[in-house]
């Protein structure tokens, strides 16, 4: 099978700490991979290594067969790999439309600023932010800023989106909206990696789940199997969840 | 369309200044020439400091490099304009080369590294006596023109440099590079993740912000007929553009020009009475600006007018 994204024995050390410890993982086209693990397990580090923010200490990352291990972030972005941030990173003094246009212009193949702005409106329509296109990004609520990040990633015309806790800090209604949105993105044929703490979300959308613990991949498989895996239960979900699951 | 309006404003301003020699005396022409020089320096600083958000103190380095290149080439027999162009080009190349080394530094670290550039070049200019005349300075050929014609010629020369810097700013604002710089200014990490080649964009911005000070330095050297290291590598040449841009409005197109005019007026009105205190006065201006007018006078005026407009409605 031709994997879209492949990690082969990827490690990343910060001084003496192995944030990622020889992680091997394959991701096929059209999958929605839930990446879970306790705080500090290395989830965000994995996203950072794939997207070029950090370089792997050892191992190899390939995207569509091309080695991207040592590419800088902007080159990775232009290959069709987008991400959102755990802590939202808008351009605060630009309008919502300009924020999204940046993605279309520099990675999405828009020919000039005007056509990037037009493409931006399309992405904003997709995430239901079209009526706020001319508002300054700094004035948006958190839930809307998260949608702005999604629109910006979509404007890059990616083949893979890595969502780093897009639902953190949202209320129940907002989470349901976000889930529907993620499903619609998947329906567009975009492969998704979703980092998430909320089990409801992970089990609701993922076609497969991978679990990181202390930088190591301890489980990788179908959602229902992974949640029952003893090691995962011990490391991540805790005894109470396990008991409830058994009852 | 605001783009068309801004081009019209630029052409109008250039036309008015170009017509100045028909009505004004030599003193006014001298002021006009200094104004054009300040405007060119401020517009250039705005590219790296305003658009990209990198607080550069390298203006004096580019200015001095342009001045010395132009002076040395003219001494070697080059005509003025090619020597001037060579000074601008060399300043741009120098910035592109050095930019690769210091543009990964952010904030204060970049500011300090850029400040060091002028100091290094000043030392070099002082030490390389065979080339630069060292501390004795360099004399340039005086054009064979009567005084008023000379004053008019150098006003037009400096006006040309300022007009080029203004045109470059207008072109940059609507361009892909201008957009990339705004992204970098607001969040460099996010910019990279969206596909902006941040290193390339910053290096280009730094080079653009060096070309016009290089040209202005050459024009200044030709105008004054004499340069020496402390004069053209003066740290005030690095500080003043920053003050002018803060005064007028960071990252705007005409803010730097307005700021240049205001600082010049201020110099003429106040500094003549406080010759030894002018650095201190400059310091006070900076503090007041940062504390009370972080977005410049143009923005403050606009907001004041807007509030009044709403109040009346």
From TrEMBL, chain A:
Pfam families: ABC_tran (PF00005), BCA_ABC_TP_C (PF12399). GO terms for molecular function: ATP binding; ATP hydrolysis activity. The keyword ATP-binding applies. SMART domains: AAA (SM00382). One of its GO terms (cellular component) is plasma membrane. Residues 5-239 form the ABC transporter domain. InterPro entries: AAA+_ATPase, ABC_AA/LPS_Transport, ABC_transporter-like_ATP-bd, BCA_ABC_TP_C, P-loop_NTPase. This is ABC transporter ATP-binding protein. The lineage of its organism: Bacteria, Pseudomonadati, Pseudomonadota, Alphaproteobacteria, Acetobacterales.
From TrEMBL, chain B:
The keyword Transmembrane helix applies. The chain crosses the membrane at residues 6-24, 54-73, 80-105, 151-172, 203-223, 243-266, 273-293. CDD domains: TM_PBP1_LivM_like. Keywords: Cell membrane, Membrane, Transmembrane, Transmembrane helix. Pfam families: BPD_transp_2. InterPro entries: ABC_transp_permease, LivM-like. It is found in: Cell membrane. One of its GO terms (molecular function) is branched-chain amino acid transmembrane transporter activity. It is a multi-pass membrane protein. It comes from the Bacteria. Its main location: membrane. One of its GO terms (cellular component) is plasma membrane. The keyword Membrane applies. This is Branched-chain amino acid ABC transporter permease. It comes from Falsiroseomonas bella. The lineage of its organism: Bacteria, Pseudomonadati, Pseudomonadota, Alphaproteobacteria, Acetobacterales.
């Amino acid at each position: 099978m031709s994997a879209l994204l492949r990690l082969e024995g990827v490690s990343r050390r910060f001084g003496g700490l192995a944030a990622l410890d020889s992680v091997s993982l394959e991701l096929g086209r059209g999958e929605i991979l839930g990446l879970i693990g306790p705080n500090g397990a290395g989830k965000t580090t994995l996203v950072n290594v794939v997207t070029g923010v950090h370089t792997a200490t050892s191992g190899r990352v390939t995207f569509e067969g091309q080695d991207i291990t040592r590419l800088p972030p902007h080159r990775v972005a232009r290959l069709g790999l987008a991400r959102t941030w755990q802590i939202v990173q808008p351009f605060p003094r630009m309008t919502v439309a300009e924020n999204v246009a940046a993605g279309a212009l520099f990675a999405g193949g828009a020919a000039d600023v005007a056509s990037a702005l037009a493409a931006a409106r399309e992405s904003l329509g997709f995430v239901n932010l079209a009526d706020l296109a001319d508002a300054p990004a700094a004035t948006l609520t958190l839930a809307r800023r998260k949608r702005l990040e999604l629109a910006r990633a979509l404007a890059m015309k990616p083949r893979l989106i890595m969502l780093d806790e897009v639902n953190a800090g949202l209320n129940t209604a907002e989470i349901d909206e976000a889930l529907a949105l993620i499903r619609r993105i998947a329906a567009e044929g975009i492969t998704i990696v979703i980092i998430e703490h909320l089990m409801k979300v992970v089990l609701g959308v993922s076609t497969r789940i991978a679990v990181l613990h202390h930088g190591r991949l301890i489980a990788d498989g179908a959602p229902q199997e992974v949640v029952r895996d003893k090691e995962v239960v011990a490391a991540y979900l805790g005894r109470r969840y396990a008991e409830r699951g058994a009852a | 369309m605001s783009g068309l309006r801004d081009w019209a404003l630029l052409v109008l301003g250039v036309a008015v200044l170009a017509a100045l020699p028909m009505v004004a005396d030599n003193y006014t022409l001298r002021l006009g020439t200094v104004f054009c020089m300040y405007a060119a320096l401020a517009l250039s600083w705005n590219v790296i400091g305003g658009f990209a958000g990198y607080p550069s103190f390298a203006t004096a380095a580019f200015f001095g490099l342009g001045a010395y290149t132009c002076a040395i080439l003219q001494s070697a027999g080059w005509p003025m304009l090619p020597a001037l162009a060579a000074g601008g080009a060399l300043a741009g190349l120098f910035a592109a080369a050095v930019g690769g080394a210091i543009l990964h530094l952010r904030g204060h670290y970049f500011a300090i590294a850029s400040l060091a550039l002028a100091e290094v070049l000043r030392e070099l200019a002082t030490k390389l006596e065979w080339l630069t005349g060292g501390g004795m300075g360099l004399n340039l050929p005086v054009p064979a023109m009567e005084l008023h014609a000379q004053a008019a010629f150098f006003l037009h020369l400096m006006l040309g440099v300022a007009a080029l810097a203004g045109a470059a700013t207008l072109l940059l604002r609507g361009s892909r590079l201008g957009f990339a710089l705004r992204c970098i200014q607001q969040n460099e990490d996010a910019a990279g993740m969206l596909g902006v080649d941040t290193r390339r964009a910053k290096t280009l911005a730094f080079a653009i912000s060096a070309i016009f000070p290089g040209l202005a330095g050459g024009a200044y050297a030709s105008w004054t007929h004499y340069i020496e290291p402390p004069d053209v590598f003066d740290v005030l040449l690095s500080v003043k553009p920053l003050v002018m841009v803060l005064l007028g409005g960071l990252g705007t197109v005409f803010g730097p020009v307005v700021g240049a005019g205001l600082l010049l007026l201020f110099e003429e009105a106040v500094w003549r009475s406080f010759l030894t205190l002018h650095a201190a006065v400059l310091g006070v201006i900076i503090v007041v600006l940062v504390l009370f007018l972080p977005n410049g006078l143009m923005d403050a005026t606009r907001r004041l007018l807007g509030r009044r407009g709403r109040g009346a409605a």
